[in-house]
Amino acid sequence: MFQAPSLFQRAPLPPATRESEPRHEQTLTATAPRPALGTSAPGAAAPAPAAAKKRDPYFDNVKYLAIVLVAVAHAWEPVMDGSRATRALYMIVYMFHMPAFILISGYFSRSFDMTAPKVKRLITSVAVPYVLFETAYSLFKRYADDSPDMAISLVDPFFLTWFLIALFIWRVTTPIWQAIRHPLPVALAIAMLASVSPDIGDDLDLQRVLQFLPFFVLGLLLKPEHFQLVRRREVRLMSLPLFAGALLFAYWAAPRMQLGWFYRANSAQEMGAPWWSGAVMTLAMFGCALVLTVGFLAWVPGRARWFTVLGAGTICGYLLHGFLIKGAEYAGLFDRYTWLSDPVGLVVVSLVAAVAVTLMCTPLVGRALKWATEPEMNWAFRKAAARR
């Protein structure tokens, strides 16, 4: 299966006189804010330290709302069988929630290079959490689900940890995409080839890594003005019939379409489809996901809201909510309480997932889990890398 989620760094607010481009690397991992780059005009006063620490509320809002969709969609999986409407909603959410995460991750990876401080940051905020939570989820299944044969394997991501190893690979390859002339067509070609290559195997979930790659590369190509265009009123209005039409189509396709196309974890042949359908579906799914992602981004509020502060803690919400979902499954709650598949039950499941992931994104949880999500580990690095 999926997930989620690195989208958790801070973006400086643009100056009042002109648009500025965020300079930090925003991922599913939290990070301290960085001062805006650039030199001041002669005689100009230095910017106040507080101003450098301000966050862009728009991207915090994107991260929070996206992680809520991730958690709710995961909560629907055990109870949506038998409900065509819920399956249709699930398909709509799965069409764009991960592409949106990945696109934003790519956007805030534009400044990544292989300098020592950034490599250190990549290891401590992505690779180390992957190792810790891959181990934790494996042990959780072994003992909570009475599965003594469950192995701890760092090359076979379990449940939602695939996103962290994927982000690590995408980040490391960022200089390549920034160097070649036509990165997006090349990334799409790689995704198409992956979708018709059943021999890739499960190691590091490379099918997902390669099939979701175009969204990360597209994020690398975006500029701040693109998000300004997306947030225009005309785009918001156009997105309403777009989502309505998508929902109608999903309702029709729900009993006919395999969910594997949305997970992008297998080749076409592994899903019993003709090999050529993998390439066709890769392009079709990319186009549909991109359009729905634009519609989602258009409706994200640009100003601070009550949930904006939670955007800094989405890594905790992403990594922790899986224990809630899997714990309920291992305890047999979804089998025992069959009413959860009814309309009222689906609402209850959705609310519980949304409230739970919201609490997991709070600053208190972020501080308590900082040792696992962004450890300093200066002892493991040379002095040049330890300085940030």
UniProtKB/TrEMBL annotation:
The chain crosses the membrane at residues 58-76, 88-109, 121-140, 152-170, 235-254, 274-299, 306-324, 344-365. Residues 57-359 form the Acyltransferase domain. Residues 12-48 are annotated as: Disordered. InterPro entries: Acyl_transf_3_dom (IPR002656), Nod_factor_acetyltransferase (IPR052734). Keywords: Membrane, Transmembrane, Transmembrane helix. It comes from the Bacteria. The keyword Membrane applies. Pfam families: Acyl_transf_3. This is Membrane protein. The lineage of its organism: Bacteria, Bacillati, Actinomycetota, Actinomycetes, Kitasatosporales.
